[in-house]
Description:
By secondary structure, the chain is α+β, with helices and mostly antiparallel strands. The chain has 6 helices and 8 strands. It has helices at 93-128, 142-146, 158-161, 169-177, 179-237, 241-355, and strands at 3-16, 24-26, 32-39, 44-51, 54-60, 68-69, 74-79, 84-89. Strands 1, 2, 3, 4, 5, 6, 7 and 8 form an 8-stranded antiparallel sheet that branches. Helix 4 runs antiparallel to helix 5 (179-237). The termini are far apart. Mean pLDDT is 79; it is low at 127-177.
Amino acid sequence: xxxxxxxxxxxxxxxxxxxxxxxxxxxxxxxxxxxxxxxxxxxxxxxxxxxxxxxxxxxxxxxxxxxxxxxxxxxxxxxxxxxxxxxxxxxxxxxxxxxxxxxxxxxxxxxxxxxxxxxxxxxxxxxxxxxxxxxxxxxxxxxxxxxxxxxxxxxxxxxxxxxxxxxxxxxxxxxxxxxxxxxxxxxxxxxxxxxxxxxxxxxxxxxxxxxxxxxxxxxxxxxxxxxxxxxxxxxxxxxxxxxxxxxxxxxxxxxxxxxxxxxxxxxxxxxxxxxxxxxxxxxxxxxxxxxxxxxxxxxxxxxxxxxxxxxxxxxxxxxxxxxxxxxxxxxxxxxxxxxxxxxxxxxxxxxxxxxx
Length: 356
């Protein structure tokens, strides 16, 4: 197709309600990709967005289009070709500003391209004089070739675009006299043939657009008839508005009661969650205390074993001390006996000394 995406963003896509021309109708259930495309073969800029395989935006930018920011995150523009107004809802104000700047940039580029094509057509049509002034109603622009200019080509257009350029008598005479001039006129003729082919393609495209618009018009008429029937049905049902209002009041009360019950259940659930969390904390504390208790029991067993060992050692020491005390007493008794014998021996020696 020769088209290349040059800028993309994501947004919610809306179209103006064709029946009321006031309300917005969403054409996408969620945010979709919206892209600027450049067709280098036709030198046009287009805004395209797809929701799956369905094209929800196919708008060619023309110099007289205007993108309007209606809020901090919403912008819109009117497309006369599609006979609708597109709206985009962005997630942030910066995305909206970027999209608006790109719109103004490509709108200016479309204006310059249109002016260049107009100048080219004027330079092409001025020296040739090969077609009548009424044969071409407007210069060949990228918008008219694409069938998206504000002036839509109608089925009556063949009266204006099927005219073929024929060399005038002066041009033929001049062509016989100069080979270079003859080549020039042949190039002019080829250019006019190419322009004629492009205009024919634009006519075919505009004819297809007219058929599509007729189909849309038929669909809109069917929708209008369906809405008229719906209005009639609603008028018939309007007598039951009192009953409906009472039922609505009862339903609102029921909804309020259910909402209060739901809030109570939510509070109960929060309380139970808090209790479960506290129970989990208690369980963790219990586990830690059980570990500490097992450690303490193992330490107590170790200390008891050490205590029994010390008791055995103490008992053996006491037995040794008692045996030592017994031996000491026996030694003391023996010493007393020896001392008594020595005293007797002393007394005897003393008596012997006195007697001598």
